[in-house]
Structures are given as C-alpha cells and as structure tokens.
Amino acid sequence: MKIVLLPGDGIGPEIMDATVSVMDAAAKKFGFTLEYDKQLLGGCAIDAYGDPFPEVTEKAAHAADAVMLGAVGGPKWDHVDPSIRPEKGLLRIRKSLGLYCNLRPMKVSRFTTHLSPLKEDRVAGTDLLIVRELTGGIYFGTHNEAALVNGVETASDVDLYTRPEVERIARKAFEAAKKRRGKVSSVDKANVLAESRMWRRIVTEMQEKDYPDVELNHFYVDNCAMQLVLNPAQFDVILTNNIFGDILSDEASVLGGSIGLLPSASLGDGTGLYEPIHGSAPDIAGQGIANPTGTILSAAMMFRYSLDKPEAADAIEAAVDKVYADGFRTPDLAGAGLTKVNTAKLGELVAQAVLDAK
Ligand code: NAD
Ligand code: IPM
Ligand code: MN
User: Fold this and answer.
1) Of all protein residues, whose CA lies closest to atom 12 belonging to ligand 2?
2) Confidence class for position 24, pLDDT limits 50, 70, 90
C-alpha cells in the first residue's frame, strides 16, 4: 500500500515521525507492507517550489492509496501573497482530491477527563462526531482582498453552497448517525444567512424523506458553541458547514484535555487524507514536545477507511489507550502522578503496545 506523507511545517515533521513508527509497527504486526512517498505541502513547499501545493505533490497524492498530513503554516509565511499561503496548499489538496467530507470524532477518554478545562462530570461520556463540509462554503467562494471601493477600503468573501453539496454531506451525517446513536444536530446560522436557510431546509427534507428513524435537531451556531461547554454529552453527530465545523471542532477538541488528541479523516470519492485537527503550533515547534496522539489516531482512521485494515485501526486505538492508562503523557497533558514523555517517546510506546497486543 502506497502512502503519501506530507509532514508539512512546524510540529508537522515531529508528529509525523512518531506516527510513522506506529504505522510501521501495525504493518509488522499484521503482515502487510507500507510504501512511503514523502512530499512537500505548505510553507516547506513554498520554500522549495514557490508553490504550497506543487504538481509533484498533487500527482503523488492522486496515485496513493492514502495521504497522511502533519500540519502546514507558520509565521514565516504569514505575509506571502494570499494566493500562495501555506493554508492555500491545504485547501487546494482538499479540492483536488474532492475531499468534501471531514470526519472529526471526539470521544473523551476516561484517562483525560480530569484534565478537561470543564468539570469532569460535564465532559464524562462525551462521544460525538463532527461531520464538516470541507470543499465549499465561504472557504471556496470568491475572496475579494482589501481594495478601495468608492474611496473606502473594502474586503469580502462569498459564502456559497449548492443543493448537491449540502445533500452529499448531509447524507454522510445521517448514515454515520445510523451506525451510532441515531441523532443528527445540524448547525447553521439560518436566522441571518441565506446559505444557512437553504441548508436547514434541505437537511430537514432529507430527514423526512430518507431518514425518518434518525432524530434531527437544529442549532444556531452561537447556541451550539455554548451547548458544547454546557452539555457536550447531548451530541451524537454534528453536521455543519466548512467554517462552523472548523471553529466548533477546535472548541470540542479541548473538552478532552488537549487539541493534540483529535484526529480527522477527509474523504471524497478517491484517495482519502488523514490529519490531526490542530495546526503547526509554531509556539512549540522544534522542541519535540508536541502531542502526536491526534496524528496517530488519524493513521488508525486511515487503516479503517482507506486501507481496509480494521484490525490495525483497532490495535492502534487500543495501544493509545494502554499508553494513556499506563500514565504516559506529553507536556500538554502532564500532571501529578503521570510520566512526562516527549513526542518521539510517546510514538515508540504506542508502537510497542501495537506489537505487544494479543
Ligand atoms: P495551532 O493548532 O497550531 O495551535 C493552537 C495552540 O494549540 C497552540 O498553543 C499550540 O501549541 C497548541 N497545540 C496544537 N497542536 C498541539 C499538539 N499536537 N500538542 C500540543 N499542543 C498543541 O493553531 P494556530 O496557532 O492558530 O495556528 C498555527 C498555524 O497552523 C497557522 O499557520 C495556521 O493557519 C495553521 N493551521 C494549520 C492546520 C493544518 O495544517 N491542518 C490546522 C490549523 C491551523
Ligand atoms: C483545519 C485548519 C484549516 C481549515 C486551515 C489551516 C486552512 O484550521 O484543518 O482545521 O481552516 O480548514
Ligand atoms: Mn481548524
């Protein structure tokens, strides 16, 4: 199986190295071979090619069985032309691979509930899945950079969805809910935005017509943000657009103690891409202390959704649990009675736990 690795920028290469050791352990344990093709995306690609998503990366990604990404971006490239920002490289690879469906599962581990910024009893039992639309909406509408309009500096971004775009992501959410607790919470801003009013109408129609057994409720995004800290365990599947999904997933991630814990899968009709939800963390890059768990769990999602190796996915998830149960933590989650380890060591411990599994 051919995997394209895109370590990217900042902590990207550190968390990717730790994850590769876990993927290698899974390959060894279950008797398959992984062939890695390391390519550039983001700031490192701007430095090498003057392009955050060079053709060679695009070709490799399309030819791969799956793509693993670390993170892109950083202060070094914050002032380049917006058309070639590192983040633009990420948006382009999502578009190029047609990755309209971003799954961001958030299950609070019993080993980290006490590290949540919320009281333990509020987060206990939280197990939700954010289904985020990833190739449309305001991210991909026309961006009119700041310019003088009638003598006044003006900028705008167009928030646009089409019916087929809403239908295909909503279908993913309803299907996911059927395999979980049967509940979809659709999040929009229908009290203000036309895009949201169409979204809400289409999602409602689909539930009535095709998914009568799935419970559907709607939240305005401001209320949803509040409900996520008030009572996160009420959510099963959260269905939302590109920008609201971006914001709500960072908020949801930390309920389990650290943004470094959350994996994601970006899926379309071809090659899938797997990445943690966090960024390149320039404030801690180069120190070897980033939490690789979100990336390692993204590799588990890759084995499950793209490579048809569910046993490897289960083993990696169980190995992460074991390492946490044994008290090992990167500094973002360290505390009294726990053993503080660096990025590479956490990867080694998870890899060993995969190899040692029954
Ligand atoms: P960030 O997610 O990089 O960092 C936010 C905070 O969380 C920081 O304090 C950071 O140290 C911490 N953090 C993040 N990941 C961590 C980990 N694995 N372990 C421990 N702590 C972790 O967000 P930001 O600072 O807003 O953005 C930095 C850069 O990353 C920007 O250029 C942004 O555009 C980019 N970004 C990229 C991606 C991606 O590549 N998928 C996602 C988000 C942000
Ligand atoms: C994410 C990131 C990206 C996004 C940025 C870096 C373009 O924040 O994957 O959550 O907004 O989608
Ligand atoms: Mn984000």
Assistant:
1) 246
2) very high
- Active-site choice (189, 211, 309, 322): 189
Q: What is the mean pLDDT of residues 52-61?
A: 98
Amino acid at 323: V
If 0-12 CB within 10 Å is exposed, 13-18 middle and 19+ buried, where does residue 211 land? buried
Whole-angstrom CA distances from 219 to 10, 209, 267 are 35, 21, 25
Beta bridge mates, 180? none
What string of DSSP letters covers 180-203? TTSEEEEEE-TTT-HHHHHHHHHH
Distance CA 128, CA 78 (A): 33
pLDDT at 50: 97
As a whole number of angstroms, the distance between CA 18 and CA 14 comes to: 7
Helices and strands per DSSP (H, E), number in the chain: 12, 14
Residue 322 annotated to the active site? no
Residue 110 pLDDT > 90: no
- Rounded CA-CA distance 242/221 in Å is 12
The residue-averaged pLDDT of 156-177 equals: 98
Angle at 264 between CA 109 and CA 274, to 5 degrees: 130
Do 177 and 214 contact (CB within 8 A), yes or no?
Answer: yes
Is 159 in the active site?
no
Query: Which amino acids bring their CB within 6 angstroms of ligand 2?
Result: 73, 87, 90-91, 246, 277, 279
Rounded to 5 degrees, φ, ψ at 18 are: -65, -35
Residue of 108, 103, 100 lying closest to 228 (CA atoms): 108
